[in-house]
């Protein structure tokens, strides 16, 4: 089948790879003029890691990744409040765990289809019109294309989702936070292979050293206002206003943003839908069921969803049966992950100083008590076995 995939991030290229393996003709359509680089650092484990192994890209991801040894929470004057050794996480995941920039992961996935799958950069799907034999897809650039199926892999703010399902009811559920990420050159100190984090009520800022003398900053802000500033300068101003006077290194970190060209800032939201397909259009990844950026496993789950969708299309002659099987297989897992992400929000971004103190106490307990491996195993394991398909 000829299958249009909107979005060349994580889910889209993963799906294209497996569809190609199954003998289909996928076409990636990406609004950006080229692959997006940079972005925040993702912790990569679980189902997504298993998909990466089946794609043969695990060695490349391990080479690009960072084996973070500790997460350290600090006070306003820089003293260490809590130090979480990540050795326990590696034990319970059997060392199938790494951390790497999202852009590096996306580029590695795309390398498996580069030159083998048609990719249209700098364009997007503007219209979807179903007919008896397929789908007429109108691109924003004016081109008309014919496909058998359309896949929305275009993220949290999916345009394909809006085209296929309409705007009401709105499936996006704002979780009350904004998140921002930026990479700067030459920042000191570095603290290699350690994630340093500082929290104030409703605010969190962290840094991690990257190769090439770069440092990634991650900001999380509780906000009743889900409005994301439109311009780069307005986004920088927001972060300076909220973080610069909180203590620790916050003033130096926000000053360093003056040299940043590419700042990521977005809402922390979930997508919850009654169904992930309509007619010949289906959604995958964040477009279908965003866990939220703070859920911890959204990137890997997007890869797993793409793999299962491709597998079910290979296993069923009728796309309607495939879409139904895809959703039936994954919906319980996704619902559980979304519920867990809502619970973990208080850990990522406590509202009070008491909440921060309790979170840091829990970090210290994990290092001190032997049985916490059982708790970590529950957190970092999935009650889902990745199916085997003939792909």
Strand content: 25-35%
Computed CA radius of gyration, to the nearest angstrom: 21 Å
- How large is the count of helical segments? 13
Shape: globular
How confident overall, as mean pLDDT? 94
In CATH terms, the superfamily is FAD/NAD(P)-binding domain
CATH topology tier name:
FAD/NAD(P)-binding domain
Biggest sheet, strands in spatial order? 5-4-13-14-15-12-16
CATH class call: Alpha Beta
Count the E strands. Answer: 18
Class from secondary-structure proportions: alpha/beta
**Spatial separation of the terminal alpha carbons:** 15 Å
Number of domains as seen in the coordinates: 1
Supply the CATH architecture. 3-Layer(bba) Sandwich
- How many strands, which pairing sense, and closed or not: the largest β-sheet? 7 strands, mixed
Low-confidence residue ranges: none
Classify the helix fraction into a percent range: 25-40%
Characterize the structure shown.
Helix 1 packs parallel to helix 10 (about 300-315), helix 2 (about 45-55) packs across helix 10 and helix 10 (about 300-315) packs antiparallel against helix 11 (about 320-350). The chain has a 7-stranded mixed β-sheet, sandwiched between helices. The model has no long low-confidence stretch (mean pLDDT about 95). The chain is globular. The chain has one domain: FAD/NAD(P)-binding domain (3-Layer(bba) Sandwich). It starts with a strand and ends in a 12-residue tail after the last helix. Strand 17 and strand 18 form a beta hairpin. It has 13 helices and 18 strands. With about 400 residues, it is α/β, with parallel strands linked by helices.
